[in-house]
Batch of 2 targets.
Target 1
Amino acid sequence: MKKNWPLWEVFVRSKNGLEHRHFGSLHAPDAEIAINNARDVYTRRKEGVSIWVVESKHITASNPDDNSELFDPAEDKAYRHPTFYTLPDEVKHM
Amino acid sequence: MSEKEIKSLEDIFDAKIANDEKIEPRDWMPEKYRQTHIRQISQHAHSEIVGMLPEGNWITRAPSLRRKVALLAKVQDEAGHGLYLYSACETLGISREELYDQLHTGKAKYSSIFNYPTLTWADMGAIGWLVDGAAIINQVPLCNTSFGPYARAMVRVCKEESFHQRQGYEIMLTLCNGTQEQKDMAQDALNRWWWPSLMMFGPTDDKSTHTAQSMKWKLKRKTNDELRQQFVDQTVPQADLLGLTVPDKDLKYNNDTGHYEFGEINWDEFWQVVKGYGKCNKERINARKNAWNNGEWVRNAAMAYAEKEAERKAKQAV
């Protein structure tokens, strides 16, 4: 029998108030061991207060080849930003 | 894809890197970029993992609890660094298993410095001070390298590496302030580790084959000789502070250039060790193979348990 441990992606919350951030990946047979391994690999110096793990195969990623279709539509929409609107100087904080 | 299309993709790719943009795993990349990165990142990962062995040799014989926890933590960091790097390498489409296989069969290399034996406790000091010192000089520029996962792994590695060098220097300092016998032991360790540390920067620039390409891809920011000079300039005053003598009769400070001039490196020795004829090459690879093979039943048992649990949960859910 030869079956390799699957790959997991590790997300760590550095401290309460911050979001979980992707820290890297590791191999583990199941979720529980993935969390234990993530503790040893990615938080040896108190880098986190909470860990998420998800098997890498469950992540669907966008394809960089589709980037223009996905992200270009936002490019010509300057009106979504506050600086698009001209206001008199007298209006100080807005 | 036609040759012309590939050429234009390559131009866009080169422009991205020149513009300090990062390359991420799913982005298009030239095959040579992928292969070069697999080679370099895996070689780096293997060096971290094999690098645990010479120091592991002294954990049970550390002279105090303070030294023992520090050495354990350092070796554990090296395991961690190896794992960050292996997972960065896997994003390029090679499996962990293939990577280990390349190490075990000798297809992939690791840093030759780890093929030297650790004979005395002072070697733990010399390795931290010199070997980790040289590694830091090699690694800091890689925090800005072009491949995203490698750069991110290196940021993490570099943050952790500085304790390694400091604990090594502290060991040397303690020995040098001790008995004559202890000081002699420190000098002996410096004598044995000095030259191999200089070799860690690789062949001289005129003999180095990959420099131009690596510079373009930001796998290198400075040449081997520049980095080696930086190491010598930084380390000689530290040896002076310890009251130790660098084992190089040609070493002298040049007032005009502001740099130390140093003697000829024994490149025959370097190539012998690279080719597998160092003192510990066989021992290191055998230790890695044994660890992997003897751990197989544990990996299988853990996998079988995970599958059984998943099955049990699926049945309960019905």
Target 2
Amino acid sequence: MAKAIREIYGEALVKYGRDNTDVVVLDADVSGSTRSALFQAVCPERFFNVGVAEANMSAMAAGFASVGKIPFVNTFATFITTIGLLSARVFGSYSGLNIKFMGAYGGLSDAYDGPSHHSIEDLAIMRSLPNFRVYVASDEKNADWLVKHAIDSKGPMYIRLSRDVFPSVYESGTTFEDGKGKVLRKGKDATIVACGLMVGFALDAANLLASDGIDVTVIDMFTIKPLDADLIVESAKTTGAVAVAEEHSVIGGLGGAVAEVLARNGVGVPVSFVGLADCHAECGAYTELLAKYGLDVQAIVAGVRETVAKKL
Amino acid sequence: MSLTAERKTYLDGLCGKFRRDVIDTLYAAQTGHPGGSLSVCEILTALYFEKARVDPSNPQKPDRDRIVLCKGHAAPMLYRVLAEKGFFPVEEMKTLRQLNTRLQGHPSIKHTPGVDLSTGPLGTGLSAALGMALGLRLSNTNAKVYAILGDGDVNEGTVWEACMSAVKFKANNLIAIYDWNKVQLDGKSADIMPQGDMAAKFSAFGWRCIPCDGHNVEALCEAIDKANAYPDDRPVIVLADTVKGKGVSFMEGQNAWHGKAIGESDHKRAVAELGGK
């Protein structure tokens, strides 16, 4: 049985943070959910549960960072990027402090708790902050690497995780690079640029499309910022059509980032946006939510057909 | 340990000079916050010139004491004190709030030597100071963290979240100093957001409170010594009784002078009252 992304995260915190005494971990009374509790179990002296006080947690993290620690801030993605945002902006973005904001329960993964707990604007919010780097974990191997990367690379970061299990995309030992997307499949008819859960779905969509004679490239753009602009431009030019797939609002997230890059480079290809259509979802089973709100394999297939149909 | 008469005279002299210079700087800039700057003058002077261990020749020294001006709008006074201490030339004061300056409208660790935390948005300073204190403790230094709160600042809920957390984490290397002038931007705190019994509130959260005259450097130094001498794990707050706009009669206690530009005749009057030329 594959492990949930949150489990991988908690294990990676222990793996990479246990012996690095600069790593400190903060949580806001959801450590069992975020799995930061795994770190608490082995390094209680470097774990700080602040209670349900996300604004305080984010600002405390800034203090830790200012004296040379590497603080990991943990709570649900939507609370980090709303209540915790002031400190992310003033201490992370403006001051450049080395704070790692870990967005647990990204997208609709906290499905049954409903839209109050879903996170569908986080990428748009965090991407707009100068100096921030923004990532979305796309599978177990990638999530593990992102934790190591957060420790090794200085500067403010936002990393979106998930409550759930993601389809496995990468082999053990796969290496990743900051600002470099991963080409998982090469095709000639369209490019799917995806992140997070949508990456695995995009590969399934590509197989379905292939049986229909549509041959697509699939890119995992786990590095939302810095974005791999060269790869996007090159692939868009080669295939002539782009579909972006993300578990996020269609406004301002990966779709917005891809559209900005294409426009800036004068690449006039059709782009379809697979994501939440500027609306909130509702509560329900995760797979049912993904289907109803256009975030499943079929939605990506439809998105590719839409963009391919508009090709010149 | 009380100050020698000579030292006390010296520090009082510094405070007089800082007040006059800040008024001149704000008059020249025609922007910035006089009221809170005049209010915090003795607190900053007591810390930087007497109690805090800082080194202008090495502003990033890892085991230095940290000073967090949570009420970041009092930046002009902070900058004047830092300049006197030797972190940058006093001359640079005339660049305050101007394009390309190192002296931003609110304190910035990116720009200004000697500033330990970027502040401005209220409510986050005490939380960050707590994180510093806990981080320094993990690093086994005996450095202290001083956080200077203001009346608008304590309106913010985060301040009280930080109060709870500081007690939970036994932050005995964190000392808050409340520049308690009881006036904020829109009016008296009693009208904007009544404070009630502040000492009782902080005490109820588990903090030790030390009341003191916030315009008496010697009293502030004694309060800080007392705060540092407690043998237990409770955080301490010095409740420094102050006057917004202190030293300029027509600014004292007046919320209108929170962030108003100083006109020519007001500047003349203020300078005369502060014993300038």
